[in-house]
Amino acid sequence: MYTKDGEKYFIVDAHVALWDARPENQRNIHGKQFIDCFYDYHRNLSPESEVWTYEEYLYQGGERLMKDLFTDGYVDHAIFQPAYLGEFYHSGFGQSEEASALAEAHPDKLTYNHNFDPRNGEQGLEQLHADAERFGLKGVKLYTAEWHGESRGWKLDDPWARRYFEACRELGITNIHVHKGPTIRPLDRDAFDVADIDHVASDFTDLNFIVEHCGLPRLEDFCWIATQEPNVHAGLAVAMPFIHTRPKYFGQILGELLYWVGEDRIQFSSDYAIWTPRWLVERFVDFQIPDELTEYAPVTTAQKKKILGLNAAKMYGIDVPAELRLPDADEPATGPRGADELSAV
């Protein structure tokens, strides 16, 4: 929990990872390219005081993760969103065994989501059933630009992907997190395009589609889809650190999301270990839309509380102390919202 000026904020970090990118786990040059790209994001968008050494960055381990999130980072609950990347790393990039064991040991603090790849066909479907039973899955993280043999990506509306979503329905896996937005070397930009969210969100209205990185740099595409699909949500991973390097740009991102998507469908994420949550939480609570961005309404304390934790807590059924809860906004399910607030400024 974070407290500032008498206000208390329940913090859910909705997108964290425990990865191993050390040289001994790199299968080929692409494993090094991938973690080097992550490190460039980390080094260039973090305050100088928050920059890790490259060696620290390759593997953080469970003990450090617990300290960075819960001892130092104000986080009340965090959700693992592991990327597999088996073509680049011997045991995968996100460490499923270590992360799931950590979540099992700290169920009050951690939720473990897993992943699937529809290109694995029937065998993958069987594995999804086994994983759902083993981990008690409520969500998955999908990486549509992941390489798989000769394939360099897949789409959410592919026939096999639809079979996996039907299985998610049966298994109670209702939260589908999808990396849509920033490309990462050597993955292909177009395989992260946000357009295929529209099709599956319309067909699977009983599943939540959380678009991680809110489609950046295709924010406009994302907003025009999300405003018409009440089951599409915005994840702020990667968007958050711009609060430091480019606050006006961050203000534009947040202003657009609040206008098109609304305060009840935006989730805070540090994207740990690309960044750590402490400074992001502090900066976000202090943040306000820059005066020159007159087309956006000011961000309220209630909106910040929802974004920092209450929205994700509601989606995952995480217990929140009664005194910290807030009612949903009285907003339309579809279409732009926020015009009334702006006219009142």
Automatic annotation (TrEMBL):
Amidohydrolase-related domain segment(s): 12-318
Single annotated GO MF: hydrolase activity
Top-level taxon: Bacteria
Record protein name field: Amidohydrolase
Pfam families on file: Amidohydro_2 (PF04909)
